[in-house]
Design a protein that fits this description.
Length: 347
C-alpha cells in the first residue's frame, strides 16, 4: 500500500534560507567541536543517538561490536548499548546492553544497529536496524518500545518496514531510520534502500545507489504506508554514482531539516544539510560539516581504518525541539577503532 497525500509538494531551489559561502549551510558555521566520546576498549562504537531524560541526564543509545571483527562487524555482530552522562561534555557511563542479536529465525538474528531514540508522548521509541543473515539483503527497520529510558524494552517479532517488491528501487532492504512528527501528529519515517540488481552489478567499493524513501503512519508504531512518489531524495541522475546515507530529520520552526553523510555530491568526507517545508520536497544539499581534520589534529590513520577522517551517522541532541549538540561517529581514537564525536551547535 502506498500513500501519496501528505502536504502540497513545494518546488525548492538551491539556497533556501541556509545558503552560506562556498556551498556551506549556515548550520555548519554554528558547530564548535567538543571532541571524542564513548571510546571503548576492544570495541568499535557507532550510531550515537542522544536524548535528554526527564531528570535532565543525557542518555545515548549506541552501536558497538568487537574490535576483533574489524570495521565490517557492524553487519554481523553489532549490539545496542545504553549510556548516560550528566552533560554531553562529560564521560559517559554504560548502563548496559539493551538489544543484541537474537539468533535463530528472528529478523534481527545477526545484528542490531542504527539506533534512533525518540520520546513520543509517555513512551520511548527506539528505531533500529536488524538483519537475519549477516548480510545487507535482510536489513530491516524495527522498533523497540519502553515507558522508561531504562527499559524494559519490548522488542518486535516482525520488522516495522519491509522492502518493496522485486525490481523496485527499494527491493534490497530498509535501513538507517529517521523519524519526525508533523504538526498535526502524523508520523514520518525516512529510510534508506537501493535496488538489488544495481547492487549486484555495480563495480568498485560503493555498490548500488542509495536513496531515501518516506513511509507515513497515524501512530509511531505503525502500520506505515510508503509515500507514492518515493524515493523522496535521489541523487543518481547527477552521475558518477552520487548518493547519500545516514539521514537525521528534525522539525525546527516552520520547516524540516535533514543532516546526512555525503557520498559524492561534494565529497565523501563531508556532511549534507537540506531543508523542506513539507518533509517531501527537499532543497539543494549544502555542506553541513567538514572532514575531521578541519576541526582537530589527530594521528595518521592506521592501515586497517579505511574510512578515517570523516564523520558518519549524524544525530542531534535536541532541547525543546532545537539543535543543541551534534553527535557523530568517526574512526580512530585512542584504541584505533571508532568512537563518537560531539559538536556544540551554537545559536
Amino acid at each position: 500500500m502506498t500513500q501519496t497525500a501528505l502536504l502540497p509538494v513545494l518546488s525548492l531551489v538551491a539556497g533556501f534560507t541556509a545558503q552560506g559561502q562556498d556551498n556551506h549551510a549556515a548550520f555548519s558555521r554554528r558547530l564548535k567541536p567538543v571532541g571524542r566520546v564513548l571510546e571503548r576498549e576492544n570495541f568499535y562504537v557507532w550510531c550515537n543517538s542522544p536524548i535528554y531524560g526527564p531528570d535532565g541526564v543525557v542518555h545515548v543509545f549506541y552501536s558497538r561490536w568487537p574490535a576483533a571483527r574489524g570495521m565490517g562487524g557492524w553487519l554481523n555482530a553489532s549490539e545496542i548499548v545504553h549510556a548516560v552522562a550528566p552533560t554531553p561534555t562529560e564521560p559517559f557511563t554504560d548502563v548496559g546492553v539493551i538489544l543484541s542479536p537474537r539468533g535463530g529465525d528472528f529478523w534481527d538474528a545477526t545484528t542490531c544497529h542504527n539506533p534512533h531514540i525518540q520520546r513520543i508522548g509517555n513512551q520511548y521509541a527506539l528505531f533500529y536496524m536488524g538483519n537475519a543473515n549477516g548480510k545487507t539483503d535482510t536489513k530491516r527497520i524495527g522498533l523497540a518500545i519502553a515507558s522508561s529510558l531504562y527499559g524494559p524494552w519490548e522488542r518486535p517479532d516482525k520488522p516495522l518496514l519491509e522492502p518493496g517488491p522485486v525490481g523496485s528501487w527499494d527491493d534490497h532492504c530498509t535501513t538507517n531510520p529517521a523519524f519526525v512528527m508533523t504538526p498535526d501528529g502524523r508520523c514520518l519515517l525516512y529510510y534508506k534502500s537501493w535496488n538489488t540488481a544495481e547492487y549486484v552489478s555495480a563495480k568498485g567499493s560503493i555498490r548500488g545507489n542509495r536513496k531515501y524513501g518516506l513511509a507515513i503512519a497515524d501512530r509511531f508504531d505503525g502500520p506505515y504506508s510508503k509515500y507514492g512518489a518515493n524515493p523522496v531524495i535521489d541523487f543518481s541522475a547527477r552521475g558518477d554514482n552520487r548518493q547519500f546515507e545516514d539521514a537525521f530529520v528534525w522539525r525546527e520552526g516552520d520547516r524540516y531539516s535533514m543532516l546526512a553523510r555525503d557520498m559524492g555530491i561534494y565529497s565523501h568526507a563531508v556532511g549534507l544539510y537540506l531543508e523542506s517545508r513539507d518533509g517531501v520536497a527537499w532543497s539543494e544539499p549544502l555542506i553541513a560539516y567538514d572532514a575531521l581534520g578541519r576541526y582537530v589534529d589527530e594521528p595518521t590513520a592506521p592501515p586497517h581504518l579505511k574510512r578515517y577522517g570523516r564523520f558518519e551517522r549524524p544525530q542531534l541532541l535536541l532541547r525543546e525541539g532545537k539543535a543543541e549538540y551534534l553527535f557523530t561517529a568517526a574512526q580512530g581514537g585512542k584504541y584505533g577503532t571508532a568512537s563518537g564525536f560531539v559538536f556544540l551547535v551554537g545559536r
